[in-house]
Design brief:
The protein is α+β, with helices and mostly antiparallel strands and 135 residues long. It has helices spanning 7-23, 35-38, 55-69; strands at residues 39-47, 50-53, 72-76, 81-83, 86-95, 98-109, 115-124. The N and C termini lie far apart (51 Å). The model has no long low-confidence stretch (mean pLDDT 86).
């Protein structure tokens, strides 16, 4: 039995690849993973640190995070699962060469294949992280 990938699934996989590149590029590298290709204009990003709405808010958050952390690498821990316009991405964040945190992102895709919503769960929070500090 051979398995074929639906064109929609391939488009979602491409969006996930761009999503990973987005978190691994600085603003000077923005041309390598432009947020406008990755996210809808009104992207909603829900994470333990709070809720961000809009592409620019997410870009600004990434820039602040990268300035704070200096050297980071955001990687998939396993192949993302994709179905019915959603994906589950289990990730690992390395900072300064060591594991900093792990988590799971649940992503929803818009009709054009760009990411419309991200809900982030921390599987292993960074040392000293207080999930209630932002409430």
């Amino acid at each position: 039995m051979s398995r074929t990938i639906e064109p929609t699934t391939a488009r979602y996989q491409e969006s996930l690849d761009r999503y990973l590149r987005f978190w691994n590029t600085s603003s000077s590298d923005e041309e390598n993973a432009p947020a406008s290709v990755v996210f809808t204009e009104e992207i909603r990003y829900c994470a333990p640190i709070g809720v961000l709405t809009g592409r620019q808010a997410l870009i600004d958050f990434r820039e602040r995070f990268l300035r704070h952390m200096e050297t980071v690498a955001f990687r998939a821990r396993r192949e993302p699962e994709i179905h019915h316009g959603h994906a589950r991405l289990q990730w690992r964040l390395d900072a300064r060469g060591e594991e900093f945190a792990t988590g799971t992102d649940v992503l929803a895709f818009g009709p054009d294949g760009r990411i419309d919503t991200v809900t982030t769960f921390l599987d292993k929070a960074p040392e000293g992280f207080n999930p209630h500090a932002h409430e």
